[in-house]
Design brief:
By secondary structure, this protein is an alpha+beta fold. The two termini are 28 Å apart. The protein has helices at residues 36-43, 79-98, 115-121, 135-143, 157-168; strands at residues 6-11, 22-28, 47-49, 54-59, 62-67, 70-76.
Length: 174
């Protein structure tokens, strides 16, 4: 096991001290830098930095960056959600490292879904039934991993399958 323990730091964003969302740093007790290219390959980071190694991706509607000795997560509801995501990442990091012989490490950003391709699969009615003002806003949230095919009430089964297939190539499985 590469990552065994960490300490959490929960804080409000400095730019918006009264915000309802909190941010989290997980200060890692072990260096996971060697696992980052494998984690990037498995989770499909949209930015990757070689030196010092880090990968940033969006998951569960959150922006997450994994550094060698720290994980940063934004827009969390509370400490419980932070713990849940950090524990998930801990499992992902350890799994990627343990399976590294079967994984081709990725030393660049993974391809990302294109908003226009997602929009093409949506009904384009701007009905607002998904809670968003337009289908374009909804498509952007889908591209970021915050929404999925089931979140569009007007999307028929055929288009849901097509959208799910499109997103699966970017590690955005719903």
């Amino acid at each position: 096991m590469l990552l065994e323990s960490y300490t959490k730091e929960i804080f409000n964003p400095e730019c918006r001290p009264g915000a309802m969302a909190v941010h989290c740093f997980a200060h890692l007790d072990q260096d996971v830098g060697v696992a980052i290219p494998y984690l990037n390959a498995v989770l499909g980071g949209f930015t990757y930095t070689k030196d010092p190694p880090s990968v940033t991706f969006k998951a569960q509607g959150k922006l997450i960056t994994v550094h060698a000795k720290k994980i940063a997560i934004n827009a969390l509801k509370d400490e419980e959600e932070a713990t849940k995501i950090i524990e998930w990442l801990k499992r992902e990091i350890n799994s990627a490292w343990e399976n590294r012989e079967k994984i081709e490490p990725l030393y660049e950003a993974a391809p990302q879904p294109k908003i226009i391709e997602i929009l093409k699969l949506l009904p384009k009615t701007n009905c607002k039934e998904c809670g968003q003002p337009t289908c374009m806003v909804f498509a952007t949230q889908v591209a970021e991993g915050a929404k999925g095919p089931d979140d569009c009430p007007l999307l028929d089964d055929h288009r849901k399958v097509k959208l799910s297939e499109y997103l699966s190539q970017f590690h955005l499985d719903f």
